[in-house]
C-alpha cells in the first residue's frame, strides 16, 4: 500500500516548482515609480516595512536650503555695534603724553610778541599807571569797609587756622615770571595766585585753591577772567593792557580789578610778590575788543 506509482510522482514534483515560483513573485521588489505617480498612488502614502540603508534628501528641504543660500539679506550683518570694542590685534593710535599735575594746573598762555612800539595810541607811563591804581585802591578800600559795616561782618583775622600751612607761608618771593609762578600750582603745598601783577599767598585755603573749585587759579594770573567775569582756566595767564582802551573802560575795569585786590588782601593779607608781566604793562597788547563787547561786568 506504500508503493507509489509513476503517475503519482508527476503531481508531487510539479507542486514544489509552482510554490517556488509563487514565492519568487511575492519577494520580487516592485519597480520605482515616478514621483508624480507615487504621489497619486494610495500605496505610496503608506509606510514601507523594508529598511533602506541610504536616506535620500527630500526635495523640499533641498529647495529650502538653496533658497537660503541665494538670499543675500541673510548674510547682511551690521558691524557698527562692534566699533567701541577694542581689538588687541589692531595697532593702537599713538597716545598723547600725559601732563603732570603742575602742567595741568599752571599751563601758561603763548607769549605775546607785541611791544609798546607797535602801539600808536595813548600809552601812559608806569608812574601814571601806579597813581591811577593807588587812587582806585583807596576808593575801593573805603567802599569795602563801609559795606562790611552795613552788613555787620566781624573781622575773623584772629580765627584759628584749620589747615596746616607750609613753612614758607607768606614768605616774600620777589618778582616772578609766569614759569616761576607755575611752580606754586594746585599740586604744591604753597599756593600763589596773581591778580593784576600782585601775588598773594593763598595756602591757607587749600580747600579752595588746592583741590576746590578755584584750584585752576593756583600758579596763574587771573586778571583777565576777573575783568570779563569769565573766571575759568581758559581766561588765566592772558595779559593785556587795559590802559590802551578808552577812559570809560579804563575806569570801569580798574574798579573791578582793585575791588578784587581789596578782597584778596582782606582774606590773605598783603601781596608777597609781583608778576613781571605787569612791571612792563606798557608792552602788553590792547585787550581784544570782541571779548570786551561781551563783558557784562558793571
Strand order in the largest sheet: 1-4-3-2
Share of residues in strands: under 5%
Overall pLDDT level: 76
Report the order of strands and helices: HHHHHEHEEHHHEHH
Report on this model:
The protein is mainly alpha-helical and 298 residues long. The protein is 39% helix and 5% strand. The protein contains 11 helices and 4 strands, in the order H-H-H-H-H-E-H-E-E-H-H-H-E-H-H. It has helices spanning 6-27, 35-40, 59-69, 101-105, 126-151, 178-181, 206-209, 223-228, 247-268, 276-279, 289-294, and strands spanning 174-176, 192-195, 198-201, 273-275. The protein has a 4-stranded mixed sheet with strand order 1-4-3-2. A hairpin with a 2-residue loop joins strand 2 (192-195) and strand 3. The radius of gyration is 50 Å and the shape is globular. The N and C termini lie far apart (154 Å).
Summary keywords:
298 residues; mainly alpha; four-stranded mixed β-sheet; 11 helices; 39% helix; globular
Compact overview of the structure:
By secondary structure, the chain is mainly alpha-helical.
Helices and strands in order, then pairings?
Elements: H1 6-27, H2 35-40, H3 59-69, H4 101-105, H5 126-151, E1 174-176, H6 178-181, E2 192-195, E3 198-201, H7 206-209, H8 223-228, H9 247-268, E4 273-275, H10 276-279, H11 289-294
Parallel strand pairs: 1-4
Antiparallel strand pairs: 2-3, 3-4
Helix pairs in contact: 5-9
Amino acid at each position: 500500500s506504500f508503493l507509489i506509482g509513476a503517475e503519482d510522482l508527476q503531481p508531487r514534483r510539479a507542486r514544489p516548482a509552482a510554490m517556488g515560483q509563487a514565492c519568487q513573485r511575492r519577494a520580487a521588489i516592485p519597480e520605482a515609480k515616478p514621483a508624480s505617480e507615487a504621489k497619486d498612488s494610495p500605496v505610496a502614502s503608506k509606510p514601507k516595512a523594508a529598511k533602506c540603508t541610504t536616506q535620500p534628501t527630500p526635495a523640499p528641504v533641498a529647495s529650502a536650503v538653496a533658497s537660503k543660500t541665494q538670499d543675500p539679506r541673510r548674510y547682511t550683518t551690521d558691524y557698527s555695534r562692534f566699533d567701541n570694542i577694542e581689538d588687541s590685534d589692531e595697532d593702537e593710535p599713538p597716545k598723547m603724553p600725559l601732563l603732570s599735575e603742575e602742567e595741568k594746573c599752571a599751563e601758561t598762555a603763548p607769549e605775546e610778541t607785541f611791544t609798546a612800539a607797535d602801539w600808536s595810541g595813548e600809552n601812559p607811563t608806569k608812574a601814571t599807571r601806579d597813581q591811577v591804581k593807588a587812587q582806585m585802591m583807596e576808593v575801593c578800600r573805603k567802599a569795602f569797609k563801609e559795606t562790611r559795616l552795613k552788613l555787620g561782618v566781624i573781622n575773623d583775622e584772629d580765627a584759628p587756622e584749620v589747615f596746616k600751612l607750609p613753612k614758607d607761608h607768606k614768605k616774600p618771593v620777589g618778582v616772578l615770571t609766569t614759569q616761576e609762578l607755575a611752580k606754586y600750582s594746585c599740586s604744591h603745598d604753597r599756593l600763589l595766585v596773581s591778580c593784576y601783577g600782585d601775588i598773594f599767598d593763598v595756602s591757607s585755603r587749600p580747600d579752595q585753591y588746592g583741590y576746590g573749585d578755584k584750584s585752576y587759579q593756583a600758579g596763574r594770573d587771573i586778571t583777565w577772567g576777573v575783568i570779563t567775569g569769565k573766571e575759568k582756566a581758559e581766561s588765566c595767564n592772558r595779559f593785556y593792557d587795559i590802559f590802551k582802551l578808552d577812559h570809560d573802560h579804563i575806569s570801569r575795569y580798574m574798579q573791578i580789578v582793585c575791588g578784587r585786590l581789596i578782597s584778596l588782601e582782606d582774606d590773605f593779607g598783603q601781596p608777597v610778590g609781583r608778576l613781571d608781566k605787569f612791571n612792563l604793562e606798557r608792552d602788553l597788547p590792547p585787550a581784544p575788543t570782541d571779548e570786551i563787547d561781551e563783558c557784562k561786568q558793571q
